[in-house]
From TrEMBL:
UniProt KW keywords: Heme, Iron, Membrane, Metal-binding, Monooxygenase, Oxidoreductase, Transmembrane, Transmembrane helix
Major subcellular location class: membrane
Keyword Oxidoreductase appears in the UniProt entry: yes
Protein name, UniProt field: Cytochrome P450
The organism's place on the tree of life at top rank: Eukaryota
CDD domains: CYP93
Cofactor(s) needed by this chain: heme
Residue sites binding heme per the record: C451
Length: 514
């Protein structure tokens, strides 16, 4: 049974029901020939498949209907067509053969909002602005060379994370892993993009952190607003716009103050330029290929915080929960770390390539619990997909969660088995055989709009989880961690946040803070 948690949507939904009756009846266009469309599960009059979006676990409702009606489905929310992809072979086809055609998200911007608005990078269509900004983001923040340049900033944060846990361990305090992980990912990201930490209580950074949490909770509403905005605006219903603009205005206040501060210090930052310095220079450059505005810079920052910090935090929490539930995994991780890193120093970023089991554990955590279980694109032109005709402007929803648990492509998909990602794994042969025809690992999306932060994310995850296992044992209440899922906005999180007590490993006697 579908569990509807979204009381706030009842009033708009009821309004929609009645108002859109006229709209759909009189104005919606029917496809010329619907015989070529992918199959469609039974739908409700007028609202179509809206009820599936009202489920508290949308990715699971989608997974359920896909396993019943097929891996490529045609859904309809009022008159908005959606193509739901839940198969690794169709994912392979669309990302290999139609990548440009699906390289826009097609989110109608929420006007001047700093998130999902018209100045955004995430929602920008695949065009000049997106290409220009992507080059800068890769060159200055997320590409391998940029990551190498900022390594020292992150090393300090890993060490700080370790000392904070140690302090709590000494007091026998229980910690909430997601809070500690958020602090770590937030401060590391802030240092890389605005040159300073952002977790000072009551400071501006604290406000940004609070705003991130509020925005994530709002992402489900943003999805509704973007899917239904056009038809509803014609009827004069501004879905959630006030809430979205309220958060955007508060972001604006904080980010404007960061910008002003950076403008004042631009001259002083000659050597250690952060991303904000670079973007301000580009903004002031008369000869720049693309003229960017203050809103472009602010929107990018909001999206980097949103896209980078919460996702990494959730993965740290899910993966730690899996590790704690599997004592054999802890043993094997420790063996590997003791051998590669030793006991006299803390794990570092350049150890990660030599820790294949740790990497496999992280990949497996991301496979089973991808923080972004569903991601969306929009077709620019009509085309054939999976043998069916899909019309232009159709919204494409890829269910990465379902694809990464598809029993046709993953052995024991609901079991935590990091070994599957090791080169020597017995199952590897079969996986490589089918690897060419399918795209079955989608934690970071795929194609040109795939996540540009995946390398940085693997570093955050590897160093944080590595340190927590290298230096501490973890005590929990009860025998096993409860792995029940919930969605916070559209982000997959634990229904019961992981709380545990760190116990320093006696054998680790390092390092002394200078
Ligand atoms: C565990 C961590 C992360 C996960 C699971 C994740 C996942 C994703 C996914 C699924 C997408 C959509 C991809 C698609 O449409 O194909 C995405 C996009 C994006 N991510 Fe990440 N991400 C993570 C970390 C990061 C980090 C650390 C950053 C940067 C600081 C980042 C920045 C972005 C940006 C800017 C986009 C939009 C790309 C575009 O539209 O061109 N992400 N991410």
């Amino acid at each position: 049974m579908i569990n509807v948690e979204f009381q706030n949507l009842f009033i708009p939904t009821l309004l929609c029901l009645f108002s859109l009756l006229c709209f759909v009846t009189f104005f919606s266009k029917k496809p010329k020939d619907s015989s070529d469309l992918p199959p469609s599960p039974p739908s409700m009059p007028i609202i179509g498949h809206l009820h599936l979006l009202l489920s508290s676990l949308i990715h699971k409702s989608f997974q359920k209907i896909s396993s019943k009606y097929g891996p490529l489905l045609h859904l309809r929310i009022f008159n908005v067509p959606i193509l739901l992809v839940s198969s690794a072979s169709v994912a392979n086809e669309i990302f290999k053969s139609h990548d440009v055609n699906i390289s826009s998200r097609g989110l109608p911007p929420i006007d001047e909002s700093l998130f999902f608005g018209s100045s955004g990078f995430f929602s920008a269509p695949h065009g000049d602005y997106w290409k220009f900004m992507k080059k800068i983001v890769v060159a200055k923040l997320l590409g391998p060379q940029a990551i190498e340049r900022s390594r020292a900033l992150r090393a300090e944060e890993v060490e700080r994370f370790y000392f904070e846990l140690l302090e709590k361990a000494m007091k026998n305090e229980t910690v909430e892993i997601r809070r500690e992980a958020m602090k770590f990912t937030n401060n590391s990201t802030c240092k890389m993009i605005i040159g300073r930490r952002c977790w000072e209580e009551n400071g501006e950074g604290e406000r940004v952190r609070g705003l991130i949490t509020e925005s994530i909770a709002l992402t489900k509403k943003v999805l509704f607003a973007t899917l239904l905005r056009k038809p509803l605006e014609k009827l004069g219903i501004p879905l959630f716009k006030k809430e979205i603009m309220d958060i955007s205005d508060r972001y604006n206040e904080v980010l404007e103050s960061f910008l002003v501060e950076h403008e004042k210090n631009l001259e002083k930052h000659h050597q250690g330029k952060d991303l904000m310095d670079v973007l301000l220079e580009v903004k002031g450059d008369e000869n720049s290929e693309y003229k960017i505005t203050r809103d472009h810079i602010k929107s990018l920052f909001v999206e980097l915080f949103l896209g980078g910090t919460d996702t990494s935090k959730q993965t740290i929490q899910w993966t730690m929960a899996q590790i704690i539930n599997n004592s054999k995994v802890i043993e094997r991780l420790r063996e590997e770390m003791d051998c590669v890193v030793g006991k006299s120093r803390l794990i570092q970023e350049n150890d990660l390539p030599n820790l294949p089991y740790l990497q496999a554990v992280i990949k497996e955590g991301l496979r089973m619990y991808p923080p972004v279980p569903l991601f969306g694109r929009r077709l620019q032109e009509g085309c054939k997909m999976g043998g069916f005709y899909v019309a232009e402007k159709t919204t494409l929803v890829v269910n990465g969660y379902a694809i990464m648990r598809d029993p046709n492509y993953w052995e024991d998909p609901d079991e935590f088995k990091p070994e599957r990602f090791l080169a020597s794994s017995k199952t590897r042969g079969r996986e490589e055989e089918i690897g060419e025809q399918v795209l079955k690992y989608l934690s970071f999306g795929s194609g040109r709009r795939g996540c540009p932060g995946s390398n940085l994310a693997y570093i955050f995850l590897g160093t944080a989880i590595g340190m927590m296992i290298q230096c501490f044992d973890w005590r929990i209440n009860g025998a096993k961690v409860n792995m029940e899922e919930t969605l916070s906005g559209m982000v997959l999180t634990m229904a019961h946040p992981l709380k545990c007590t760190p116990v320093p490993r006696i054998c680790c006697s390092f390092p002394v803070r200078h």
